[in-house]
Amino acid sequence: MSHHHDHAHPTVSDRPMSRRTLLKALAASSVAVGIGAAAMPAAASASTAFGARAAAAAPPVSAGKRLVPVNRIGIQLFTVRDKVSSLGFRAVFEELARIGYSEIEFAGYTQGGVGAITPQEIRQLLDDNGLRATGAHVNLTPANIDQQLEIAHVLGMPHLGQGGPIAGGYGGPLAKDPWMQAIGTWNQMGEKGRAADIKLYLHNHAQEWGFTTDTNERIYDLYWANLNPETVFFEMDVYWAHVGKHLYPGFEPIDYIKRDPRRFPILHLKDGKLNPSSANGYDIVEFGAGNIDYTAFLSQLRDRGQRFGMFEQDNASTVPVNPGDSLANADRSYDNIAALRG
Fold it and tell me: Structure pTM?
C-alpha cells in the first residue's frame, strides 16, 4: 500500500485529474459550496462555471441535472472502518479523495492498530487531501457535548450527530416517556450546538419509524413535533426509512423531507436489494446494486444543492457485492451516486 503515501499532488488515475482540481477549488470557495442547485442556471448547477464549460465541450453523459452535486458527495467512515483500523486515516483519506469524495462523516476518531492520532492531526490530513468534515456519529450526552463540540470545531464540521437511537438503545419498542425525555435532552444540547454554530442531528434506523408501546404514536412524529427545528436536525438514512416503511407502513420517507427540507441537511445514501425472506424486506448492498429508486426519490427535492449526500454501506467490509473490498465498494458506489440525473 506504499503508493498511498508518495503523492503530494492529485494522482493521475483512470479518472480525469480535473475532478480533484475542481474539488480543491470548491473546497477553497465558500460561494461555490453554499449555492444550491435550484438557485443557479441549469447548466451551471452544482459544479459552477467549470461544469458549464465542460458541458459545452463534451456531450452530456445523460440528461438532466446531477441529483447529488459532486461537491456534496460524502462517505460515512463506518463503511470503510476496517480500512481505517488497518491502514489509518492518512491512507484512507488519500484513496477517498482519489475516488472523488469531498465530504467525510466520522464514526469515531481512532485508527485501530495504526496508532494514536489527535483531532488536530486528523484535520491536517483532511486539509492535505482537499476533504471536509461534514459531521460525525457520536453518542452525545450532556456530559460530553461540550468536549464533542470542541472536537467538531477542530475538525471544521458544521454538523454533529448520533448514529444510534436517542432512547432505549437498539432494544426495540419503548413507551412514549423515554423518547420525550431524550427529546428534551437533545433540545438542551441543541442550544449548546447553536451557541457553537454547529447543527446537531439524528440518524435513524428502522425502529424510529415504529410506534410507542403505550400511546401508539410514530416515534419519528414525536421527533418532528417536539425537537426544536432551529437547533436539532435530521439525517435521514433512506435505506432504514424504507425498512421502516416495510415494517411500520403508513408513511412515505420522502414526505418528511418535502414537508420541511431545511430540517434535513444530510441524507444517508444507502442502497437496499429487495429480499422477501428478510424480516427487513431488504438487504444492504453497495450503491447502485439495489432496488431503492434514488432517481425518483431525489428528483422530488427541489433544493438538492443544499444537502449533503453521504454514502454508507454498513456491511461493505464483510460482504462485498462484487469482487473487492470496502474501498472498492466505495469506489463503485461513488460513480453510481455521481451518475444520478434528474
Answer: 0.82
